[in-house]
Each structure stands twice: as C-alpha cells, then as structure tokens.
Amino acid sequence: MHLDTITKLLDIPNYREIEVTGSEYKNIYIVLERVEDTPPVCSGCGNIHGRSVHSRDGMIVEDLRISGKRVFLLVPKRKVQCVEDGTIRVEEIRWLNGRFTARFAEQVYRLTSITTNQEAGWYLGLDDETVYRIDKRKLEELALEKLDPVPAPKHMSVDEVAWQKWHKYVTNVVDVDQRKVIWNHRGLRQGEPR
User: Fold this and answer.
1) What pLDDT score does 132 carry?
2) CA 101 to chain centre
3) Residue 96's beta-bridge partner residues?
4) What is the largest CA-CA distance in the chain?
C-alpha cells in the first residue's frame, strides 16, 4: 500500500506516513512527518511568529479505530517562543484536540450524549476521567461558538417591578438605547430568609 493513501483516507493535511507498525495485536501506530515546513502557529496567541523554531519533539495522538484496532499517530510538533508573553509554546495544529484528533473528540462527544461516560469509555478503551475531560472541552468549544457576548450598554436603567402578588419582585436591568432587558433576577419575598 502506498503510504500517502493513509493520510488521504484519514484526511490529515500536510503530513505523510513514514512507517506503519502494529507492535501489539490491538493497536496500529502510524509515524507521521511534515510534507512542507510551514511556519508554526503559536498556541498561546494564535499568530505566526517570524522567529526560528525553539525545539522539535513528537507526541502520540489517538485517532478513530481502523478495523477494530486503536490507532495512534506519532505527530511531530515544534516549540516556538511567543512574542507577546515570551514563553515557549507548542505549536497549534488545527486537527488535534489535546492528545486526540478532533474527529475522535467528536466521537466521544456523540457517544456521551447518548450514553454515560463510563459506557463510552468502555467502548473506546478509555478511563472515565479522560472521557469526562474530552467531553467537557468539546462542550466548552460549542458553548463559545453559540454564545454572543453582550455589548456593554452606554445608558442603562435598573428597576424593580412587582412580579406577582404577595410582594414578589423582579429586578430588571434595561439597555435604554436599545430598549432591551439585558439582565433580570427575581427578588425575595418580604420576610423570606436571604
């Protein structure tokens, strides 16, 4: 089999396989190398710095299974010095999500949405804590995509309005310029403990 076929099937851009091994009967190990030496993207600020590479290393990343066997990719990573804070950072690779590929993290998220973390971990061969961390990270990414930050109002009004009988109140914060309620909270009844 031609080695570039695997990276095309796995949709791994700018990498090719050097070696494919299966030292254990349950796992496949694929050693990757970069096809063209593009400048590294800083994981701290997300920018490309014009500085040279500080050091090179590799990391083992888990990917989706092939023919029932767990797949591990040995991905070369570079470290660069961030211009903004001066610290040494590992480069950011878009198709990776920590020590897993983005598609593997997506599969974990889909499994945990229909079953428990323990059962998803059993199916994927992961411990509960790893499944929890992957799921939490994916949920945080989705929440950031969907949440729109509320712009700070120039003029606002705070008012307390009776909500129901028996002294139930709601505190409303209104953006006066847009005429929209930007925050509200139901207050306590008189005499209720705080």
Assistant:
1) 92
2) 10
3) 101
4) 78
Are residues 75 and 48 in contact, defined by beta-carbon separation less than 8 angstroms? no
**106-157 tens-digit pLDDT:** 999 999 999 998 999 998 888 889 999 999 988 888 888 777 776 788 899 9
Beta carbons of 22 and 28 less than 8 angstroms apart: yes
User: What would the pLDDT profile of 29-68 be if each residue is shown by its tens digit?
Assistant: 888 888 877 777 777 777 787 667 777 788 888 888 888 8
The token pair at 187 is: 């207050």
CA angle 87–90–94, rounded 5-degree value? 135
State how far the Cα of 168 lies from the Cα of 186, in Å rounded to an integer: 8
Distances (CA, A) of 8 to 11, 37, 95, 102: 5, 19, 14, 16
Q: How far is CA 157 from CA 135, 151, 172, 176, 194, in A?
A: 40, 15, 8, 6, 24
Q: Is the pTM of this model over 0.85?
A: no
Under 8 Å CB-to-CB from 25, ≥6 apart: which residues?
Answer: none
Tally DSSP H helices, then E strands, for the chain.
4, 10
Question: How is the chain split into domains, by residue range?
Answer: 1-94, 100-147, 156-186
Tell whether the model's pLDDT for residue 3 goes beyond 60. no
Residues in the chain: 194
